[in-house]
Amino acid sequence: MVWPNEDYLKLPGSYLFSTVARKQREFSAAHPDAKIIRLSIGDVTQPLAPVIIDALHKAVDEMASAETFKGYAPDLGYEFLRNVISEKDYKARGCDIAPDEIFVSDGAKGDCGNIQEIFARDCKVAVCDPVYPVYVDTNVMAGRTGTYDEKTGTWSDVIYMPCTAANGFAPELPKTVPDLIYLCFPNNPTGATITKDQLQVWVDYANKEGAVIIYDAAYEAYISEENVPHSIYECEGARECAIEIHSFSKNAGFTGVRLGYTVIPKDLKAGNVQLHSLWARRHGTKYNGAPYIIQKAGEAVYTPEGQAQLKEQVAYYMKNAATIREGLAAAGYTVSGGVNAPYIWLQTPNNMTSWEFFDYLLEKANVVGTPGSGFGPSGEHYFRLTAFGSYENTVEAIERIKKM
Ligand SMILES: Cc1ncc(COP(=O)(O)O)c(C=O)c1O
Asked: Is this prediction's pTM over 0.90?
């Protein structure tokens, strides 16, 4: 007799994006003439940059001849890609990360979800609140989170670090000492970030307590301010306490192409075990590598033309972010984010709940956003809008919101 994994049964339903989609569908059915603008999901809308398309075509052609055909990729990823990542994302920023400390993958989501596997089941996990749901849900699946309290929307064995207006949406050191700390800056959903000095405090804390920080840098390309770190390895001592996860989705539009990487420095240990060797074992056993074609496209991201074209793409989205942020502020909303991130985090007016504001916005402006409460209890009374739409739609959405 087979039984399901009970830890999976503990997961509350996939409420957030499915409820958003259902409500949008129902509204459309009831108002077929309404032109709905979606500023809700974190997916890009601009096409791949020409330099990437070119690299993809060339790599596809290589697959057509026996001399250049490629089969399984090397376990850690092709050297041409790991070398350029080490050079451009790390050494150029003064960070000491070697190519063989980089594990190429098919995106950050899988790595964010899988990384917990190399840690003991009784590790205590700390997350920001609100938070990208993958960190918590994958620890639930691993049986690490205790019991769920429907009333508070929290797990008994998870340490929540509220990120609120009072602390500038930057977490404070937790009162209970965690073993694993998930940090994501620039942040999804709040769009907030922290300075290098603030991040150094976390690195020092993790080293002092023997904790590991899992640093999700998916939105690094959106950083516009000087004192904001692009990598946790800019902080002293991070090689001994941090894993960093990157995505090609938001900087280069690879959401449908799929590419990412994870860095585990060889100095990082749990007890006397090198975590690098555990992840290498896991990678080699459970993963067969991102396709050659896609890794060639990833390499093109780092060429001078690639960097120029992608800078323009990021600037396009950040113009949307400024349009939303400034438009909402002018309309009297309390807004944050949108300076170093493609997300704008707004406080709902008149103390509306996040879902009340969702309905109000859909009804009055035909605009879809994401209720902050879906990201954790401290997201209640907040709402997330994304800068990933077209400029024209973004402008129109803000005009409509101003008239509400
Ligand atoms: C914080 C964060 N990490 C990771 C991801 C996933 O990135 P990828 O497309 O590389 O899987 C997302 C996607 O929205 C994200 O918001």
From this structure: yes
Distance from residue 248's CA to the centre of ligand 1 (Å): 9
Q: Whose CA is nearest to atom 3 of ligand 1?
A: 218
Which ligand 1 atom sits nearest the alpha carbon of residue 259?
10
* Nearest one of 11, 13, 12, 16 to 355, comparing CA atoms: 16
Q: Taking Cα atoms as reference points, which of 39, 130, 16 lies closest to residue 385?
A: 39
**What does the domain layout of the chain look like in residue ranges?**
12-47+305-403, 53-303
Superfamily of domain 12-47+305-403: Aspartate Aminotransferase, domain 1 (3.90.1150.10)
254: which 2 tokens?
Answer: 């690879």
Q: Which segments of 153-289 does DSSP mark as H helices, in order? A: 196-209, 249-252, 275-286
Distance 124 CA to ligand 1 centre (A): 23
CATH topology of domain 53-303: Aspartate Aminotransferase; domain 2 (3.40.640)
Q: Cα separation of 226 and 109, whole Å?
A: 27
Please report the pLDDT score of residue 59 as a whole number: 98
Among residues of the chain, what percentage have pLDDT more than 70? Answer: 100
Residue spans of the chain under pLDDT 50: none
* Closest C-alpha to 324, from 342, 310, 309: 342
